[in-house]
Here is the input.
Amino acid sequence: MSPRLLTRRVHRVVRPAGGGPARKMNERMVDRMFWRAGFGPTEADRKRWTGKSASSLVEFMLSTPQRLVGTAATRSDGTPLQPHASDTDMVTEWIDRMVRSENPLVERLTFFWHRHLATRRSDVSPPQLMTIQNSLFRRFADFGSNPNATYTDLMFQVGEDPAMLRFLTGEDNRVKRVNENYAREVMELFCLGVTDAAGTPNYSEDDVRELAKAVSGWQINEDDPNNAFGYFTENRWEPGPKTVLGRTANFKHRDAVEVVMQHRSHAPFLITKLWHEFIVTPADSATQADLERTYLRGGRKLRPLLERILTHPLMFESLLEPNMVKSPVVFAAGLMRQLGLSIVDDRIARSLVTLEQEPYDPPTVAGWEGGLTWLNTNSTLGRFDLAQRLLTDTRITPQDVDGEAPAAAVDRAHTAVGRPWMAPGTRAALVAYATRAPVTRSRDREIRQRALRAFMLGGPDGQVM
Here is the structure.
């Protein structure tokens, strides 16, 4: 399939066939939920949820505390990972959590917060600060353990978090030497956006400077790196009246950030970002208004907002022709889940460098751009290469079936890789390949089977969800 055809496929909008959250899910719907709100389904996920309502699956995802199943990842020599001694191990440890999560929404939403409130390991030391922040994000993604989590509390805590203080040089923000980095990102990237829907600026440079004064005075205690924390020092804070978005007071950090979140653009800004994490087609005006009411009347609670998004009928748009590109992390973790593999080395972490999405290392404070930008020449080849390399794992060596018909070989390959979505045209092309491929020797048949599996996982159909 050509890149142009894939681009057209991703942008095509096919409306859902009807029904709401109470509608019983077929297998395609279960797959959609686990890809969009997780890292792809296992066969056990399909068996458990096919025939159940979408709302029951969403309730499970929003009420089940994080639990990891299976064996924890190790290095290739069998020794435990050392996330604070090796950045590669740090990435591997997180991908392992994604692969082994019983409730994958927790890690998926943790990764969303990491991209939305981005920090970068290369600018943050010691490494423990990054894993401390990762745990903070997880608390605001695990609604089974923290059902009343609010975006307000997340914003308060992330601004006092040692990784954010170091990354945006907030620890240098003090009286008479105000540093604007964090204040600017609070408005531009975390809460408001530069302009509203009409193109009107949401804030001014004066607002940034005044907010920066309010959030001054924070430092990092890293005497014990494993328990580092941010703390406030009164004599480093800029005292006096500050005017933020038209309101004047002797603001400190949380008071001023609360003023920002009361701005009319905050709710639509955050809701739009969360919506497009899961759904391609923009929300219509009635849906947008409903989501804003849910968020604001609930005191900016996240669980009710996520419930409204995940149970919206547009979660099931375009089921017969998926229209969202998998990010590299979702693709890589999904491969492991599709193949039923546990992590025993660092090849997933290393591959994510080539695929251009290495966790803990976003390219900018805005995170990753995403969408069709994931599918460039290098990263697309890297995806196929990763699929091929995983398929050489001796734990999933294909059995030799002498005399197997081409269509049967395709079906067997499809089952072996987790029965991913495959367009009818793709299946026809693979049957044609299986018909032409040599099958005289056992080795020939093994090559054919591995090639079929690689095409299904690494080809164009495997890039969308």
